[in-house]
Amino acid sequence: MGAWVYDDPSFALRTVTVRRGAEMGAGAADSLELMFLGCNRNDYDLMSDGFTARLALSGRTVAEGMRDQPVFLGTRDTSSFVIVMPLQPSDLGTPDRVLPFELSGTGVVHTPIGNRPVQFRLKGRVDSHGEGMRWMGEGAVPCRPGLSALPGIFDRRVPAAGEDSTSPPRRPLYPNDPNGPVVPGPGQQPGEGGRP
Fold first, then answer.
1. CA dihedral over 78, 193, 68, 31, signed as positive or negative
2. Residues 6+ away with beta carbon under 8 Å from 140
3. How far apart are CA 166 and CA 194, in angstroms?
4. Which domains, from first to last, does the chain contain?
5. What is the rounded CA–CA span in Å between residue 13 and residue 122?
6. Whole-prediction pTM value?
7. pLDDT (tens digit, 9 = 90+) per residue, 123-142?
8. Contact by Cβ (8 Å): 137, 123
9. I need a surface site. Which of 18, 79, 166, 188 has the fewest CB within 10 A?
10. Is 56 exposed, middle or buried (0-12, 13-18, 19+ CB in 10 A)?
11. Can you tell me the distance from the alpha carbon of 123 to that of 21, in angstroms, rounded to the nearest whole number?
12. pLDDT tens string 148-173
């Protein structure tokens, strides 16, 4: 009888949206919506009761948040989920600057062989300008459990092995649409290939 094999899920940042309190009603605070893609390479489903995340800019923690709703990671598939962080306007620094960011997250996933703690750390830079903010991830590991892929820069698809990787420069997502599609390059099909 074969033994169970387990591989930690991996995570990538897909979109970041700043929600201004004034847009959400009187008394509402500003917040940051982070949409992640979780990748499960295992031959069985994973489930988590939630995740916590912390955002640091230039080495200084500026926001923390928690998702206390279940996150389902299907067998050899990707799934998206959102974590919301309360935010003060001053936390994002002054406009017209480029700052390094680091996102760290923790959670516990339930597997057929017991509960497993997971951690992830994502790095990149955020470009603050007059028209909004552009968040660019760096160094993410491609994930291809089936036909899906996690983007190394979260507004561009990672090319599959053998594909032409000389696609044009990435095009940013609309900054106010946390559920917007990944902008495909020439010859690429839209869609994230995962479960919402």
1. positive
2. 12, 13, 122, 150, 151, 152, 153, 154, 158
3. 24
4. 10-138 (2.60.40.10)
5. 8
6. 0.68
7. 999 887 766 788 888 876 66
8. yes
9. 166
10. middle
11. 27
12. 444 444 433 334 444 443 433 333 44
